[in-house]
Amino acid sequence: MNQENVNKLVDLIKANRNYPVEQLRQSALQGGASEKDFNAALSVVNAPVATLEYKDVGIRFFALIIDTIIFSILFWLFMKVFSDTYVGSCNSGFHIGYLLQ
């Protein structure tokens, strides 16, 4: 499969969308393209395009609340795991979550 040929065939198919696929296939094959390249180009042209949908403020706010809860739980776990550990088994005086006086 030659990517350059596939790109040319994609342009050909997009420019001639009003013609039947079989007619475009025959034209491409007569022009020297391979069946494999044409099928690859056809799959590129027919690939679904990702679209973004607008979600209203209520859904987005609810998602923010859920994200905040998840982040808070993860932060709490991080604090529990690392608040009393010492780097290199030495008392460096550095404690995450504690104020030193």
What's the quick description here?
The chain is 59% helix and 0% strand. By secondary structure, the chain is an all-alpha fold. The mean pLDDT is 80.
Rg, Cα atoms, Å:
29 Å
Structural class: mainly alpha
Specify the overall morphology: elongated
Quaternary structure state of the chains depicted: single chain
Give helix % range: 55-70%
Structure characterization notes:
With 101 residues, the protein is mostly helical. The chain is built from 4 helices and no strands. It folds into 2 domains: 3-45; 57-88. It is 59% helix and 0% strand.
Observed structural traits:
101 residues; mainly alpha; 2 domains; elongated
Explain the layout of strands and helices.
Elements: H1 3-15, H2 21-30, H3 35-45, H4 57-82
